[in-house]
């Protein structure tokens, strides 16, 4: 009822919001769905692991692609991508199945390969693939006698034997770690960015509450055809552009460590350096890339992310190796946290068993050494909760879905 009154009030104050796509804001579950889809693989001197989770959202609208060894004579090339859908999953799903094909088969890309894969021509071929699939999806949608209103961001990497081509369209993000630090990351396409805002206004639109026409929170995306119908403007001049930014980074075998591709549900709660440091610390205690990917999602959930979450972790030969010292520190940290939970629960005495919120807040107020950088206490929520549940088998389930943000 309160939400309905809020929407009515907004529409009275801002009549232009009559066409506001409230579905882009999403709806939430009573508790998050933490079941995960996992996959992994290796080849071309690469290893990858991926994880995706619905989380608090009512629907799962993310999709992903992971292919090592590409068709059309590109055996030594690989492609990875994450698609973050909104207002439906149709565009994200279609892109996950067909975007790579549109990139590798278009004439510009094929010509680039005949020219010994010059960097600029490959970048142009990738751009052409995006524009082609967007136009193709529009045609399919119109033939169904109704425009599909869903859209999707896309972030990916096309890895050749000599270069990594970072591809971004929207506000998902890619990050590369090299020589122990963040080496490169893509720039988010937000409506309030000066160049994006200029294009939107030139197409007759506006940026309100950091959204295109007060509605869509990204300024570049595939799909979203409601925002691509300004007459006299080309496909890259519309309110929302399907054009990706493509960056080519020359590979450095001795220093390249890993690449992270993730939707904004990850970046909403983790800064670039935080996530980079967290992943590096996890790679020092396990070489299971699915496990590392799962820990990223769980940590972000407990840090307060309310979105679908997907992450692809691609590792080069220079990735950090498992360290016996790091494994030992991790085991000691887990043991310390278990003992502290026991102490906190016993200390309550006659007051009864404290709830999990109290336990987490108490630990958060303490200086605990050797917590994983970037993840901090949130990354150890599962350890804390496991011992809490063991000591309190008659607990209420009310705290099971509480985020760490709720706990301090």
Automatic annotation (TrEMBL):
The keyword Transmembrane helix belongs to this UniProt entry's keyword annotation: no
Quaternary structure (record): Monomer. Interacts with SMAD2; the interaction dephosphorylates SMAD2 in its C-terminal SXS motif resulting in disruption of the SMAD2/SMAD4 complex, SMAD2 nuclear export and termination of the TGF-beta-mediated signaling. Interacts with SMAD2; the interaction dephosphorylates SMAD2 in its C-terminal SXS motif resulting in disruption of the SMAD2/SMAD4 complex, SMAD2 nuclear export and termination of the TGF-beta-mediated signaling. Interacts with the phosphorylated form of IKBKB/IKKB.
Designated name of the protein: Protein phosphatase 1A
CDD domains recorded: PP2Cc (cd00143)
Keywords noted in UniProt: Cytoplasm, Hydrolase, Lipoprotein, Magnesium, Manganese, Membrane, Metal-binding, Myristate, Nucleus, Phosphoprotein, Protein phosphatase, Signal
Membrane topology type: Lipid-anchor
Family note: Belongs to the PP2C family.
Enzyme Commission number(s) of this protein: 3.1.3.16
Domain PPM-type phosphatase: 47-316
Family matches, as InterPro entries: PP2C (IPR015655), PP2C_BS (IPR000222), PP2C_C (IPR012911), PP2C_C_sf (IPR036580), PPM-type-like_dom_sf (IPR036457), PPM-type_phosphatase-like_dom (IPR001932)
Organism: Neogobius melanostomus
GO MF term set: magnesium ion binding; manganese ion binding; protein serine/threonine phosphatase activity
Role played: Enzyme with a broad specificity. Negatively regulates TGF-beta signaling through dephosphorylating SMAD2 and SMAD3, resulting in their dissociation from SMAD4, nuclear export of the SMADs and termination of the TGF-beta-mediated signaling. Dephosphorylates PRKAA1 and PRKAA2. Plays an important role in the termination of TNF-alpha-mediated NF-kappa-B activation through dephosphorylating and inactivating IKBKB/IKKB.
PANTHER family with a match to the protein in the record: PROTEIN PHOSPHATASE
GO-annotated cellular components: cytosol; membrane; nucleus
Cellular location(s): Cytoplasm, Cytosol; Membrane; Nucleus
Signal peptide residues on this chain, from the entry's feature table: 1-19
Keyword Plastid (UniProt): no
One Pfam family matching this protein: PP2C_C
Catalytic reaction annotation: O-phospho-L-threonyl-[protein] + H2O = L-threonyl-[protein] + phosphate
């Amino acid at each position: 009822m309160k939400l309905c009154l809020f929407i009515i009030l907004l529409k009275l104050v801002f009549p232009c919001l009559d066409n506001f796509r409230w579905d882009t804001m999403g709806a939430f579950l009573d508790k998050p769905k933490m079941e995960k889809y996992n996959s992994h693989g290796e080849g071309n001197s690469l290893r990858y692991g991926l994880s995706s989770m619905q989380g608090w959202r009512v629907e799962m609208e993310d999709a992903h692609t992971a292919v090592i060894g590409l068709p059309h004579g590109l055996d030594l090339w690989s492609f990875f991508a994450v698609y973050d859908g909104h207002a439906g999953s149709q565009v994200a799903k279609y892109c996950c199945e067909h975007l790579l094909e549109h990139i590798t088969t278009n004439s510009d890309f094929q010509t680039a390969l005949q020219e010994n894969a010059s960097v600029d021509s490959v970048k142009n071929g990738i751009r052409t693939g995006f524009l082609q699939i967007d136009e193709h999806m529009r045609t399919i949608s119109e033939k169904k006698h109704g425009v599909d209103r869903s859209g999707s961001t896309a972030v990916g990497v096309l890895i050749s034997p000599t270069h990594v081509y970072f591809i971004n369209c929207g506000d998902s993000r890619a990050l590369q770690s090299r020589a122990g630090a963040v080496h490169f990351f893509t720039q988010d396409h937000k409506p309030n960015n000066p160049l994006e805002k200029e294009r939107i206004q030139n197409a007759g639109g506006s940026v309100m509450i950091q959204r295109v026409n007060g509605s869509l929170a990204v300024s570049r995306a595939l799909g979203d055809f409601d925002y691509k119908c300004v007459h006299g403007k080309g496909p890259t001049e519309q309110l929302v552009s399907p054009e990706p930014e493509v960056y080519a980074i020359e590979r450095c075998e001795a220093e390249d460590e890993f690449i992270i591709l993730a939707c904004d549900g990850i970046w909403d709660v983790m800064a670039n350096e935080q996530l980079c440091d967290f992943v590096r610390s996890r790679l020092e205690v396990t070489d299971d890339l699915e496990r590392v990917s799962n820990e990223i999602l769980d940590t972000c959930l407990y840090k307060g992310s309310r979105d679908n979450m997907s992450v692809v972790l691609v590792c080069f030969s220079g990735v950090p190796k498992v360290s016996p010292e790091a494994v030992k520190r991790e085991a000691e940290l887990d043991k310390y946290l278990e003992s502290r939970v026991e102490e906190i629960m016993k200390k309550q005495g006659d007051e009864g068993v404290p709830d999990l919120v109290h336990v987490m807040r108490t630990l958060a107020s303490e200086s605990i050494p050797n917590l994983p950088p970037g993840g901090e206490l949130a990354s150890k929520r599962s350890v804390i909760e496991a011992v809490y549940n063991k000591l309190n088998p008659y607990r209420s389930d009310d705290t099971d879905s509480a985020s760490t943000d709720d706990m301090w």
